[in-house]
């Protein structure tokens, strides 16, 4: 039970930490960003929003990939364990 | 604080009184659902969300009487929740298309937009308050439709929807107290009483199912609390298990889907334990991921959901604290 919960705790903590880190990156790197030679404020603001949006998409993609891999790894592990226990305890007819 | 406690107590009492009546009526009119994760597959009365909406209406009206200056806020909150409840009731009676339901729930945000009871300055940890005067309006329909449908999808076992939503509401209540958001605290208090009663009746072994009327309206109410109470970032974290569940399901199937349209992600063994389906076409829901590590009894699987919601709730409160210390 604890192992089952720990997997998700790890995912939740990772996602939360990524959000906090992402907010720090937006605040300290993206918001003060000034493009050399670009004086149009709307263009600069659009670029900042686009970069932030890409960061959010990457964050969601990472979240999905983590759980997808965690699920299939667990399924494979369970299948492997089931196969092992079958080969260790063969039925009478198999002997 | 007296007003919040009164709203909580009245909502709790009204739901407690109306729940047995609702159960009786649903049973009489054969509005029942099969509890598929029990060996004897009992028939359980559906649409207990009616009692939740009755309790919520009582608590909101009581709060409006005690604090008439907040009538606009309370009216937009109640109207949003009731519209989502009506959509849920229609879905319970006549199944709505999987693409239509999110669109309709987005319309439930109309009272908030029309009454202008929101503040377009969401606060984030580290960044602080952000001015989003135009974009915020466009995001409000999503802020109602996403939690509404995510909560609707997070009801695999007895008590998971009502229990996890109670924890989310508690986390939002603590966060609103940390951040000094009195509006959010009041709305959380209005919702908490009915939710506690629903959890009491819906926990394993369930005596009642909330139906889509319950899940869609509770999800919309939580989305409305996030918007009206300026708890957007906190709510996003508190909602992580619900978002995970909906997101994984949608990502696997590749489109919006109804539960009946896809293979069941969970199946039952002969001994009554639940196991993850081995069907590659079944959606990867949170329940399926939890059960992938081995079979569990329904009450054990429901407990894992509650633990996850509690951890997400703790992180949400921590997010509120970080927002508070942000200059």
Write a brief caption for the model.
The complex is a heterodimer of chains A (95) and B (327). With 95 residues, chain A is an all-alpha fold.
Describe this structure in words.
Chain A has two helices and no strands. The longest helix of chain A has 48 residues, at 41-88. Helix content of chain A is 81%, strand content 0%. Chain A starts with a helix and ends in a 7-residue tail after the last helix. With 95 residues, chain A is mainly α. Chain B is mainly alpha-helical and 327 residues long. Chain B has helices spanning 2-28, 49-66, 71-93, 100-107, 110-115, 135-153, 160-179, 182-202, 211-228, 232-238, 240-253, 286-291, 298-325, and strands spanning 32-34, 43-45, 123-124, 128-129, 266-268, 274-276. In chain B, helix 2 (49-66) packs parallel to helix 9. Chain B is globular. Chains A and B meet through helix 1 and helix 2 of A and helix 11, helix 12 and helix 13 of B.
Labels describing this entry:
heterodimer, A: 95 residues, 2 helices, B: 327 residues, mainly alpha, two-stranded antiparallel ribbon, two-stranded antiparallel sheet, 5% strand
What helical percentage do the residues of chain B reach? Answer: 55-70%
Largest sheet of chain A: none
Q: Please tally the β strands of chain A and state the result.
A: 0
| Unreliable residue stretches of chain A | none
Backbone structural class of chain A: mainly alpha
Widest sheet of chain B: strand order?
Answer: 1-2
Query: What's the count of strands of chain B?
Result: 6
Shape, per Cα inertia axes of chain B: globular
Measured as a percent range, the helix fraction of chain A is: over 70%
Cα end-to-end separation of chain A: 36 Å
The proportion of strand residues of chain B reads: under 5%
